[in-house]
Amino acid sequence: MRFECDVIEDLLPLYRDGACSEASTRAVEEHIKECSKCAKILEELKDTEIDELIVREKDNIIGSQSKYFRRKSAIAGIVVAAIFALPILICLIVNLASGHGLTWFFIVLASMMIPTSLFVVPLMAPKNRMFWTMISFTASIILLLAVCCIYSRGNWFFVAASSVLFGLCMCFMPFIACRRPVNEYLKNFKGLTVMAADTVAFYFMILCIGLHVRVPGFFRTALSISVPIILMCWVIFFIIRYLKVNGLTKAGICIVAVSLFGRFGTELILFLTLNNSVNDGVQVYDYPSMIGVIGGLVVGAVFIVIGMVLGKKGEKNNE
Length: 319
Known about the structure:
This protein has helices at about 5-15, 20-35, 35-95, 105-125, 130-150, 155-175, 180-185, 190-215, 220-240, 245-275, 285-319. By secondary structure, it is mainly α. The model is unreliable at about 275-285 (pLDDT under 50).
């Protein structure tokens, strides 16, 4: 052989692409006739080229199909929006023809935004459809409450809106936190963010209700009842999310925590709400309730022991 394999291997990519000179091409062809190793490398390079072509073709097909389905979804969204627009147009004509101006037309318009957010937005949104559907659905409900409050000349908007926001946070926040684009920012703090959002929404609701009812002592009573319960929820969350033990042990610790809260948390709530007195004719605990607390502690202890035993067996098996 006239040339070493190292020299020919350097020329093989150029030979495959047809970029070699005539002398280099002859040298490569003469060499691969005698060297099976370099001939095999050349075949692998050709196979790699074919694979790249297949990948490009696959991407082109997927891209064209994606554009096709996006166009179809957009057309379907326009058709559904036009169907929803018909009753709005009819209400507008009837409202004007009856000589009442635009009294209840805006209520109908705002109410039609709710089904539009559920049916049209998923079809029209180019990406992150679930996220935008939930956002638009929430905004449409708040808009409907605002329009109804304005036309009824009421002052209940913030009470209703904060209550709806709290309910929607409880239902939707776990899904929003796990979907794009939110999950890209939250990463490993999804559960913590959901708990914080629910807590903020709850106390915003309490604030709006207190400012609306203006009952003396409302905030003191509301905070006295809610703060121990919210703290208990946070304790259970941290146990489940961050405690590095198995599921049975976590379940046992949660049962013990809830049982202790049933014994001391209720007493704390009554102490705070009854002006530091739990003897105003209120019997806090009787024998059945104490039996329930003790039973919870026993069950929790059993779960903890079983979990610890199974955990040690699992560690030995892994070793």
